[in-house]
Amino acid sequence: MKWGWRSRENLVDGEWRWSFARRQLIYDVVEPERVYLERWRFDTPFGSIFLHSINLPDRDPYPHTHPFSWSRSLIVKGSYVEKRGPYGDDVRRYRPGQVNRIDADTVHRIVSTRGDRPVWTVFAAGKPHGRGWGFVIDGNYQDHREYLAIRNARLNASDASVETSASEPPGYSI
Asked: Residues 28-84: pLDDT tens digits?
């Protein structure tokens, strides 16, 4: 069976293998020294499973999509409120034991977490749908690479003393 959508580093003799607990730190947009999300990734032949520690809400002003054909997020500890849809009209709260269904066309943004404690989730995802991450600005989809380049250029222009990168941050790769 061909697993071309999987990471090449997990291929051994042309066959896909399991990988365990690759840790990834994703930094905050507003305060780049703070960790917004800690992610541990587990790849299996059946899909990817992530353990997430969400330390801050999404502070980017625009909602985003995910790069997977489907995903589900089981809230293990803590809670959060998200706004769904291109304009954030649909507000939902998720508590421990609840499952957040995030499909390829879901547009959302976590707007608050409870207290200063992280929210722990187990996030299961199917294969990537091919479009990658995206942001929705005024109802229009924009690829994450284009959006991040524009956003980072604005940050650089507004404060030359703050170093930012126009490359995609680690949180936006699959």
From this structure: 988 999 999 999 998 887 788 999 999 999 998 999 999 999 999 999 999 999 999
Does residue 53 fall inside a structural domain?
yes
Please list, in sequence order, all residues whose beta carbon lies within 8 angstroms of the beta carbon of residue 145, skipping any fewer than 6 positions away: 132, 168
Q: Provide φ and ψ at 113, rounded to 5°.
A: -120, 160
For 161: left if phi > 0, alpha if psi spans -120 to 50, otherwise beta; the answer is alpha
Is residue 27 in some structural domain?
yes
CATH number for the domain harbouring residue 45: 2.60.120.10
Three-point CA angle 75, 78, 81, nearest 5°: 80
- Work out how many domains the chain is built from and give that number: 1
